[in-house]
Structures are given as structure tokens and as C-alpha cells.
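User: Show me a protein chain along with its predicted structure.
Assistant: Here is one chain, sequence first, then C-alpha cells.
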Amino acid sequence: MNRIQLILVTAVILLLAFALGWFTYWLLHRFSRVAGGDIAEMDLLAQSLHAAEEARDHAILYLEQREAELMDQIAQTEAELTATLENLQDARREVKDLGDYIARIKAKT
């Protein structure tokens, strides 16, 4: 092995050692950052998520209660409408009977 080959092999080995060291540093920094500094931020995000889930649950419960109230109100309104229509039919029948009665009385006289 001559001098130039030795220099090139040494340079490649040093470059690979530098790249491996840099990658190891980056990897350790990446994992240690999540484990250390961002815990407070992660706790804050977890609390915010928990509060949002509770708000969603309350909203769903409120909507379900409101829907049940409105369905009851619709059922009651439909029952009142049916009763009103039946009374209207009875009133029309009575008016027709009274009209026929008046017409018979007039026909007799």
C-alpha cells in the first residue's frame, strides 16, 4: 500500500467515524429532547385534550337531552293536532246536520 492509498483510506475512515458520531449525537439528542424538555408541554397538551373531551361529552349529553325534549314536544304537538282535526270533523258534521235540520224545517213551512 503506497502513501496516497494510506491517506485516502485514513480519510475515508475518519469521515465514516465523523458521520457515525454525528448520527449518534442526533439520535440521542432527538430521544433525550422528548424525554426531558417537552414533558411540560406534553402535560399541557394532555390536560387540554382531557378538557376538550369533557366539553365534547357535555355537549353530546346536552344535545341528546335537547333532542329528547324536542321529540316529546313534537309528539305532543302531533297528538294535539290529531285531536283538533277530529274536533273539526265533528264540528263540520254537526254544522252539516244543523244545516240539514234547518233545510227540513224550511221545507215544511
